[in-house]
Specification:
The protein is α+β, with helices and mostly antiparallel strands. The chain is 20% helix and 30% strand. α5 packs across α6. The longest helix is centred in the middle third of the chain and has 19 residues. The two termini are 22 Å apart.
Length: 304
């Protein structure tokens, strides 16, 4: 596996602020931050965040957040102010009014500036764990929150639990013979005109390289030769770390859909990809928030 250069970073892969991980062990840090009027809070409702406008999130003072949230420390912004998240389960009504409404990460993530994008993906990833993992998976007891929202300790059996991150590979397949051809697949759950890269979780005891080769073969029927790492991105659906790759097909003619998860595979020309990226085609490609979009756009821009 070799590294490649990059023409840009995925919007959700940027370093937006200091996570201040050393502060998580400070006693009573969450309560202290909630009493501080300079603290800013990103409220999460289900998988949505509040918008100030089309490219900025709305942040609140701690006193403005209603009761019923799970709280955690996100870090500190460039001014040194603490950043918190207050997470509410999905429900009929948003917990607070927002100037420009509420939107999900898939919809707005690719348009946000770096601090807001990083905060949204961190808050959503952590928030899902806070809501879904209140009970000890070993003995079933209700756990106690610790480390400013970053751990849970079981008072019954003493085990300590942390947020999980599941590695997954996502792969854009290039042609063995044609530098202007890219293989994409259409998931059986999507519309017929929607295509993306091939992806799947890394299995127990499996390397990233092996996962790339297995997933590509399973979903597209293609064996690959050279595998090039492109970059990574957190993707909290539900708790993935997406590791992006380019892989070169050994035999273009071997491409075929598995007929279960993947309904169709198709070799696209560079011009076809360009029109789809510009919205000038019936083909629907992944949104800008995803690393799949970055892989496809990088390939399109890297003209020979």
């Amino acid at each position: 596996m070799t590294a490649t250069g990059s023409t840009g970073e995925s919007p959700l892969a940027r370093v937006g602020f200091d996570r201040a991980a050393e502060e998580r062990a400070v006693p009573d840090v969450l309560n202290a931050a909630r009493r501080d009027p300079s603290t800013r809070v990103l409220v999460i409702h289900g998988d949505a965040a509040p918008l100030a406008d089309a490219s900025r999130l709305e942040w609140f003072a701690p006193a403005d957040v209603p009761d019923g949230a799970e709280w955690a420390l996100l870090g500190r912004d460039g001014t040194g102010a603490r950043l918190l998240t207050a997470v509410f389960a999905a429900g009929d009504d948003a917990p607070l009014p927002s100037p420009a409404g509420w939107a999900g990460l898939r919809t707005i993530g690719g348009s946000l500036e770096a601090t807001d994008a990083a905060a949204f993906v961190e808050a959503l990833s952590l928030g899902r764990w806070l809501l879904d993992s209140r009970y000890c998976p070993a003995c079933g007891a209700l756990t106690d929150l610790g480390d400013a929202g970053w751990s849970r300790r079981c008072p019954s059996c003493g085990r300590q639990h942390f947020p999980r991150t599941d590695p997954a590979v996502i792969v854009a397949i290039t042609s063995a013979t044609d530098p202007d051809a890219l293989l994409l697949g259409s998931n059986a759950l999507w519309g017929a005109d929607r295509f993306s890269c091939f992806a799947g979780f890394v299995e127990a005891g499996e390397s990233l390289e092996a996962a790339v080769r297995r997933e590509v073969a399973e979903e597209s029927g293609v064996e690959v030769g050279a595998v090039h790492y492109r970059g990574s991105q957190a993707w909290p659906y539900p708790r993935s770390l997406m590791l992006g790759f380019f892989a070169e097909a050994l035999d273009d003619h071997a491409a075929r859909a598995d007929g279960e998860e993947i309904a169709a595979v198709r070799w696209f020309t560079r011009d076809e990809i360009g029109r789809a990226l510009a919205g000038e085609s019936d083909v629907v490609l992944p949104g800008r928030a995803s690393i799949a979009h970055r892989l496809i756009a990088d390939w399109h821009e890297a003209r020979p």
